[in-house]
Amino acid sequence: MDDAAVLKRRGYIMGINLGEGSYAKVKSAFSERLKFNVAVKIIDRKKAPTDFLEKFLPREIEILAMLNHRSIVKTYEIFETSDGKVYIIMELGVQGDLLEFIKTRGALHEDDARKKFRQLSSAIKYCHDLDVVHRDLKCENLLLDKDFNIKLSDFGFSKRCLRDDSGRLTLSKTFCGSAAYAAPEVLQGIPYQPKVYDIWSLGVILYIMVCGSMPYDDSNIKKMLRIQKEHRVNFPRSKHLTGECKDLIYRMLQPDVNRRLHIDEILSHCWVQPKARGLSSAAINKEGESSRSTESPWTPDPISDKKSPTKLEPREEAGPKTSPEEESVEVSRQSETLGFNGERVASEPEEGAPQPPQQPSETHS
User: Fold this and answer.
1) What pLDDT is stored for residue 143 in this prediction?
2) CA angle, corner 184, sides to 181 and 189, nearest 5?
3) 319: Cβ–Cβ under 8 A, 6 or more apart, which residues?
4) What cofactor does this protein call for (predicted)?
5) Which end of the chain is more exposed for a tag (fewer CB within 10 A), N or C?
6) Closest-CA residue to 40 (of 56, 22, 17, 68)
């Protein structure tokens, strides 16, 4: 039977196509039982790679079945047919994803960003408390419900963290995610703490929320890594961000994994708290003072129409326009994809490729 017939027998009337890949697609459908529209992720085992079928799909199904949080997309049903197709029935993000929202409306005001970021951070705390890590946090994976509340989705790279005999979390060696949102330790191929990796991605997401642009230019991974490791973060002057907001972003985009904020510290940060506002300059200076640089390492890249960032497909072994002053946002330049045994990895642009223009900005360093 085709997908429509399979879904019809389960009580779903198939609707439009929401997305499609080489071995999976997402459709909308109306649930006759629930009386509202849902999203249906359909995975064809016959077309999927072995690594995905043996490792990532079982993890995703196990984790989806255990999660229950108001800011995480609900999973209503999972079933499989005899011809090897897996159907995952999920909550539908009726207002689209955060990336499209920012492309359409521009950077969020801090009050709106605070609300959405608090929802996202609450979802991540829920996951981390269960020793579940997402490992692919990005704006495309943050859906919006009818009231524009955040719904975290796509747990395809998620996993349950293991602990050693002393109770400490073990390091992860699977390098996955999107280069534009990936922490420097992941880009370098260093075994990493997966919860700490999620925090870096949260920092990138908050930056995009309030600036409407990417914090780093991922068209040159080597240069991007150097800037990240020097702990330099540029903020467009036109956005007039508060010191508390910049301080939180700066502490999440901390290259030293031992100093990067934990999720509880994020939720208790004065910018995230709805009432406890007002961070002294001394508190900011303790970590890093907001200052103007004589030379900006990079101007934040406007969000371009290219949907997906450079992907760091999972692999087990470590491996080696527009001014920011403008309010119009298009999605980020998320650049090179090079083959590595059929997998895509981050890369540098060809020699002589044009670099982003230097524009005035503020630098947190």
Assistant:
1) 97
2) 110
3) 175, 189, 340, 345
4) Mg(2+)
5) N
6) 17
32 is in which domain, residue-wise?
A: 3-91
With tokens 């990005």, the residue in question is 138
Which two structure tokens, joined as six digits, stand for 357? 């223009």
Whether residue 15 is found in the same domain as residue 115: no
Domain with 28 in it: what CATH number? 3.30.200.20
Q: Is 136 a catalytic residue?
A: yes
Mean pLDDT of the chain: 81
Interstrand relation of 362-364 and 233-235 (parallel, antiparallel or unpaired):
antiparallel
Looking at residue 164, its pLDDT comes to 85
Total domains, the chain:
2
Q: Which of 61, 91, 121 is the last residue of a domain?
A: 91
pLDDT digits (tens, 9 = 90+) for 71-82: 999 999 999 999
Q: Are residues 78 and 104 in the same domain?
A: no
pLDDT for the residue 275: 61
Q: pLDDT (tens digit, 9 = 90+) per residue, 181-229?
A: 999 999 999 999 999 999 999 999 999 999 999 999 999 999 999 999 9
Q: Residues 267-271: contacts with CB within 8 Å, 24+ apart? A: 267/118, 267/121, 267/122, 267/125, 269/244, 270/244, 271/110, 271/114, 271/242, 271/244, 271/245, 271/247
Average pLDDT value for residue range 3-28? 95
Among 3, 97, 136, 301, the one annotated catalytic: 136
**Angle at the Cα of 349 from the Cα atoms of 187 and 252, rounded to 5 degrees:** 35
CA dist., res. 135 & res. 159, Å (int) = 8
- Known binding-site residue numbers for ATP: 41
For residues 173 and 189, is the Cβ–Cβ distance under 8 A? no
